[in-house]
From TrEMBL:
Protein name in UniProt: Stage III sporulation protein AD
InterPro entries: Spore_III_AC/AD
Keyword Membrane: yes
Organism, as annotated: Dorea longicatena
Organism ancestry: Bacteria, Bacillati, Bacillota, Clostridia, Lachnospirales
Pfam family, one: SpoIIIAC
Keyword terms, alphabetized: Membrane, Transmembrane, Transmembrane helix
Protein's UniProt keywords contain Membrane: yes
Length: 128
């Protein structure tokens, strides 16, 4: 889907969800979850293309593929955390949304520690 189609789909979904706001407000949340999943599904093709290009660049430059695996994990965690946190906020559960965000940040920090360690070792090698 193009950006214009995604934008139209998003606005139409919001307008539809607003129709249910006065009566059955939980339907609005269901609509936002379904739209979010649909938009993510349409994004998968572009993510796959990006992953292929980055893997090719990694092979040409000779970088360790573990760093790119870590990068993809971090991107996945970020998207999942943002998506679930936004849904919790829309439903009125800001405390749970905040806990999801904190958990994601700590998980990303833990995942990035080996990369930070390798960077520090490289810098140390330059200084010695």
């Amino acid at each position: 889907m193009s950006m214009l189609q995604i934008g139209i789909l998003g606005v139409a979904g919001v307008l539809l969800a607003l129709q249910f706001k006065s009566g059955k407000s939980e339907y609005g949340i269901y609509i936002s979850i379904a739209l979010g999943m649909l938009i993510f599904a349409s994004l998968l093709g572009k993510i796959s293309l990006l992953k292929d290009v980055l893997n090719e660049v990694s092979n040409v430059v000779g970088l360790n593929s573990d760093y790119f695996k870590t990068l993809w994990k971090i991107l996945g965690i970020t998207y999942a955390a943002e998506f679930s946190s936004a849904i919790c906020k829309d439903a009125g559960y800001q405390t749970i949304a905040l806990q999801i965000e904190v958990f994601a940040k700590i998980t990303i920090l833990v995942l990035s520690l080996p990369v930070l360690s390798a960077l520090l070792q490289t810098i140390r090698g330059f200084l010695v």
